[in-house]
C-alpha cells in the first residue's frame, strides 16, 4: 500500500550557453534536492542550453541528441546516484529531420521509465518552436514510480485543460510542467504581470479541476539569441489540489522548491468536489472537433 505522502522538488535554474555547465548545475541541484528529502526532482524545459527557439536557424538542430544519449545518460546517473526520480527535458533527435521537445523520466534506480513528447507546439514571436519540433505522438502519459504516479506535460501544454484532464484520468497524482516562459522585454511594463497571472492561474485551475498537485518548473534570467532576447520570469511553483500555492520561487535567481504532497488531501478534495463523478462523458463528443458549427 502506498504511503500517504511523497516529496517533490522543482529546480529553477538560470541557464548558461554551455551545456556542460548546465548539466553540472543540474546534477548538483538534484543531489541537493535529494538531501532535502525529495523523491522526485524536475528540471526546467530544454535545460541544457539557451532557449534557441527565439529564431529559426538550422544550425540549432546540431544541439539535438538521441534518447538514450549523452545528456540522458547524465540524468540516468544522477537519478541512480541520489536514489530519486528525475524528470529532464531534452531536444530529442529521433531521426534526421524529425526532432521533438521531450521529457525524460528516470526512476530511482536510474532506469528510463519512459518519455513524453510535447504535444502542443507554439509559434509566437521569439517562441518559434514549430520550426524545430515535430508534435508529440505518444499521447498523454502517466509514469508509475515508487514515489508517485507522475504526469509530465511541457510548457505550451500548460494552457490546455484537455491535456491536464487526460493526464489526470490516467491516474496522475502530480502533473509536472517543465517550462521556458518569460517576457519580451519591451512588453514587460505593460503586459508582464497580466501574462504571468494568466500563466500561473491557468495551471492552478488544472489542479482544482482535476484534484491533483501541479508543479511548474521554469528557468530564470535573460537569454539573448536575437534582439533583446527573452527575460524568463522564474516563479516556479507548486500548488495543491485545492489550488493553494504551497511554494513559489522568485524571479531573479536559482531556487529549489521542496514540497511534500499528501494523498489524503487529494482524496478529501475529490470526495467533496466530485468532478470526475459528475462528468457528462456522453455529451463531450464535440471536443474532438476543431470548431463546433
Q: Give the total of beta strands.
A: 17
Q: Biggest β-sheet, characterized?
A: 9 strands, mixed
Please report the distance between the alpha carbons of the first and last residues.
49 Å
CATH class: Alpha Beta
CATH architectural designation: 4-Layer Sandwich
Structural class: alpha/beta
Oligomer: single chain
Explained architecture:
With 293 residues, the chain is α/β, with parallel strands linked by helices. The protein has one domain (5-288): 4-Layer Sandwich (Nitrilase/N-carbamoyl-D-aminoacid amidohydrolase), CATH 3.60.110. It is built from 5 helices and 17 strands. The protein has helices at 19-35, 70-82, 161-169, 188-210, 263-272; strands spanning 5-14, 40-42, 85-95, 98-106, 112-117, 123-124, 127-128, 142-144, 149-152, 174-178, 182-183, 213-217, 219-223, 230-233, 237-239, 245-248, 255-262. The strands form 3 sheets. Strands 1, 2, 3, 4, 5, 11, 13, 14 and 17 form a 9-stranded mixed β-sheet that branches. It is globular and about 50 Å long. The mean pLDDT is 97.
What's a quick, concise take on this entry?
This protein has 293 residues and is of the alpha/beta class.
List the helices and strands and how they pair.
Layout: E1 5-14, H1 19-35, E2 40-42, H2 70-82, E3 85-95, E4 98-106, E5 112-117, E6 123-124, E7 127-128, E8 142-144, E9 149-152, H3 161-169, E10 174-178, E11 182-183, H4 188-210, E12 213-217, E13 219-223, E14 230-233, E15 237-239, E16 245-248, E17 255-262, H5 263-272
Amino acid at each position: 500500500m502506498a504511503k500517504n505522502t511523497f516529496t517533490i522538488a522543482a529546480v529553477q535554474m538560470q541557464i548558461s550557453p554551455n551545456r556542460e555547465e548546465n548539466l553540472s548545475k543540474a546534477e548538483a541541484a538534484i543531489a541537493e534536492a535529494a538531501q532535502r528529502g525529495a523523491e522526485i526532482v524536475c528540471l526546467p524545459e530544454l535545460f541544457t542550453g539557451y532557449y534557441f527557439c527565439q529564431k529559426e536557424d538550422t544550425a540549432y538542430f546540431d544541439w539535438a541528441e538521441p534518447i538514450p544519449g549523452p545528456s540522458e545518460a547524465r540524468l540516468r546517473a544522477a537519478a541512480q546516484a541520489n536514489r530519486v526520480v528525475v524528470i529532464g527535458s531534452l531536444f530529442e533527435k529521433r531521426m534526421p529531420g524529425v526532432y521533438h521537445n521531450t521529457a525524460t523520466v528516470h526512476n530511482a534506480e536510474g532506469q528510463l521509465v519512459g518519455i513524453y513528447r510535447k504535444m502542443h507546439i507554439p509559434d509566437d514571436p521569439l517562441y518559434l518552436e514549430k520550426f524545430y519540433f515535430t508534435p508529440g505522438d505518444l499521447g498523454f502519459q502517466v509514469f508509475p514510480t515508487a514515489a508517485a504516479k507522475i504526469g509530465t506535460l511541457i510548457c505550451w501544454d500548460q494552457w490546455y485543460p484537455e491535456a491536464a484532464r487526460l493526464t489526470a484520468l490516467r491516474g496522475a497524482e502530480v502533473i509536472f510542467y517543465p517550462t521556458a516562459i518569460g517576457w519580451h522585454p519591451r512588453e514587460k511594463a505593460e503586459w508582464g504581470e497580466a501574462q504571468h497571472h494568466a500563466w500561473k492561474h491557468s495551471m492552478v485551475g488544472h489542479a482544482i479541476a482535476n484534484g491533483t498537485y501541479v508543479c511548474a518548473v521554469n528557468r530564470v534570467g535573460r537569454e539573448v539569441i536575437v534582439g533583446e532576447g527573452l527575460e524568463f520570469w522564474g516563479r516556479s511553483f507548486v500548488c495543491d489540489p485545492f489550488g493553494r500555492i504551497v511554494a513559489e520561487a522568485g524571479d531573479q535567481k536559482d531556487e529549489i522548491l521542496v514540497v511534500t504532497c499528501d494523498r489524503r488531501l487529494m482524496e478529501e478534495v475529490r470526495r467533496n468536489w466530485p468532478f470526475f463523478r459528475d462528468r457528462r462523458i456522453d455529451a463531450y463528443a464535440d471536443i474532438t472537433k476543431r470548431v463546433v458549427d
